[in-house]
Amino acid sequence: MKDAQGHRAMKLSNATLADLPQAIVRPTYDRSALTPGIVHIGLGNFHRAHQAWYLHRLMQQGQAHDWAIIGAGVRPGDAAMRDRLLAQDCLNTLIELDPAGISAEVTGAMIDFLPIEEDNAQLIATMSDPAIRIVSLTVTEGGYYRRADGGLDTGHADLKHDAAHPATPRTAFGAMVAALRARRTAGHPPFTAMCCDNLQGNGAILRQTVVGLARLSDPDLADWIDTQGAFPDAMVDCIVPATGDAERSIVQDLGIDDAAPVTHENFRQWVIEDHFCAGRPDWAAAGATMTDNVHPYESMKIRILNAGHQVLANVGEIIGHQTIADCMDDPRIAAFFRKVQTTGIIPYVDAVDGMPAAQYLALIETRFANPRIRDTTRRVAFDGSSRHPGFVLPTLRDALAAGGDIQGLALTEALWARMCAGTREDGSQIAPNDPLWNSLVDAAQAARHDPQVWLAQDGFYGELGDNPLFADAFGNWLNQLWADGAAATIDAYLSR
């Protein structure tokens, strides 16, 4: 591989750090002296651009050298990422895509990646070590085995397996329970379990999953985890596109041969509830916000940014826009986004730290419009079966309870249903893009003739499907989408 000048790009490794191009920021600390304190499950792009970067920044300041990260995964697909990262000593190139220019930094806070095993034996053994004081996770919003009402789905086959075979679990949560059991038996305290997924009250949700699973096989252990452990809430924010050929070419042009580079926007935020049972790094020194009340930050971000992503991504897929920035560059779609936000979302978001919701929206519009961030509509629309219930529907419930304007959110849901029919308006196919894709396509195609079929999916809508105000608005918009197309339907909404 060669860089932009035709020179051979430098293979990333500990041995080549000193030889990287001069402009590349790299670790100034001795990586060989790092010792582990954190196991992170789910080593996707987001974790490496966000949580791992905060720890790397602390290490650059001479701190937290006993808090290095050991990576882990529980899905067979994680093995390929493990191979790529181990081949380069778990180093990562982060490429910041600022509208004004591109910069790069190599981070080194991660020092190992555990084997991917069906019984999770090494993961359990590592988390059982009292040196591990935090176990953090990014396993997607839909990965916490929740029912439509928010409770734990104890009837799920994975949880039933782990309850029946607690020593050889198949889930991350079963592995955590097994490790906590081993720590209790050995007289060691529990680790802090920290969720870093986009979920309102994510600490409570992780507590529910871990404690609830433990209770199925060992009620005394569940009580110990519940009383002695800690599950802090955390709000995470940074737009991190998927890595494709374009992203790999950027890092190669910079002179680095990295098998797993990550691009990200020029913005990060991490708000953490300061509740840990076994210590923590001084993340505040790296720019994180430590607080006793994460909820307002979560609410603002999830309702405006995450729900806003769904407002844009579904219509973008339908009409063929490739990226979120392309959507924001379309005057009609940008106006649709702003109206849904100002009439349907912002009235139900409080100011945080002196920042009104309208000011936060302006920040989000600028971030979404960044042309260097090729955040695809496909990536953002992925797993709508988790994202719409988690990001959009809570605000819809608030709007209905307040007698507010629900038209924009109803149209957002209709656009999701139209997208899930599996074709764009130009006739091209939308490839499967949800764990429940087949059932979504069946419901979406049936809803073309009877919109109520879509709302009858109780796992997403629950009681909302029977609300006449929402059902009427949804049905009207979906019928118009099929009859007149997205552009005319959005124009009709904008003219209301």
TrEMBL record:
Highest taxon, organism lineage: Bacteria
Domain Mannitol dehydrogenase N-terminal: 37-284
Pfam families, A to Z: Mannitol_dh, Mannitol_dh_C
Keywords: Oxidoreductase
Domain called Mannitol dehydrogenase C-terminal: residue spans: 293-482
PANTHER family referenced in this protein's UniProt entry, alphabetically: MANNITOL DEHYDROGENASE 2-RELATED, MANNITOL DEHYDROGENASE DSF1-RELATED
Stated name of the protein: Mannitol dehydrogenase family protein
Gene source species: Loktanella gaetbuli
